[in-house]
């Protein structure tokens, strides 16, 4: 069973955009690798910019300085 994880940061996608992402990743795996669409799992993780960073600062803090 294929498992695709998509991690997105920043502006959250809409429900419609998430549906499209799931549909297209499933289609690509079926067409490219011959995977069964009924057994393909796509997980979308929405990352808050408060929860990750660079150089000792969160992305939220870095973005607020721009």
Plain-language structure description:
The chain has helices spanning 15-33, 59-64; strands spanning 3-9, 41-47, 53-54, 57-58. With 66 residues, it is an alpha+beta fold. Strands 1-2 form a two-stranded parallel sheet. A hairpin with a 2-residue loop joins strand 3 (53-54) and strand 4 (57-58). The protein is elongated.
What would the keywords be for this entry?
66 residues; alpha+beta; two-stranded parallel sheet; two-stranded antiparallel ribbon; 2 helices; 4 strands; 38% helix; elongated
Brief summary of the model shown:
The protein has 66 residues and is of the alpha+beta class.
Structural class: alpha+beta
Rg over CA atoms, rounded to whole Å, is: 16 Å
- Structural shape: elongated
Strand adjacency order, main sheet: 1-2
Spell out the helices and strands N to C: EHEEEH
